[in-house]
Sequence to fold (296 residues):
Amino acid sequence: MHRDDLDRFLRDDDIVPSSGFVAHVMDAVHAEAAAPPAIPFPWARALPGIVATAAAFVALIAGFVSLAIEGPASAATTTTNLANDTIVAWLVVVLLLCTVPVAVSLRFTRTLVNDD
Amino acid sequence: MSAADDERAVDRVLQGDLSAFEEIVRRWQGPIVNMAYRFCHDRGRAEEMAQEAFVKAFRGLAKWRREAAFSTWLFALAANLYRTEIRRIPPRTVGLDEIAEPADPRGTEPDLEDREQRRLVQRALRTLPPKYRDALVLFYFHGMDIVTAAQSLRLPEGTMKTRLSRGRDMLRRKLFHAPR
Fold:
């Protein structure tokens, strides 16, 4: 094979579309046009949950950082203090985090049912 | 049909006239199917991928910002789709040493020899790493026009030139030093 042939073989490599190609494409396009628009992600409804999750995550990291700064000597005391002072708060946060998606999904389902 | 006709057809489609999209498909079916064929070398699959490209173009027609020609946008969209498809389901690749050579090339018909060599080149092309293969496919598809090929791949011209040069070297090494 000559090296010039390489260009020729790569350049001239065409086919002709089949006769029904345009009709098939237009069928698919008509189906696409008739389909209902995609449901956008409900950012407004999801935002409170996202913010709450982010806040919980930041608080968790802050807790770990403060534990690391205080060092292993005071770790036991800190753990006890955390247990005494914040465990109830954490429980509330966790319960809220569990409740929010359930409430949001229930509300979302109700809206969809009412829309139908 | 000119670039201005494309633009008018797009405007009509955006106003709800689907028949205008048929004009677009009729005009661009050849290049779009051929580009797909160069990626997969399977007529049936090429038409399926081309159909998907047209449907995707229809869906995203409002996103065409008219900074470049409609064809540039359409080719870039199609090239992107085809590359994703080929990565998802690669075409069957045969090793160069598995390809049967004519027993005596001097004794064969020129056409047959030509066809065999063409097949050999295409198979070698499919064994290249995707970034070099894609650059070569689009460069030759666009009639060896680096600027247009780079636009289709959304790459800077310099990167395109580098990929083409390395891709051609790799292809030549595979073809001219392949085990016989």
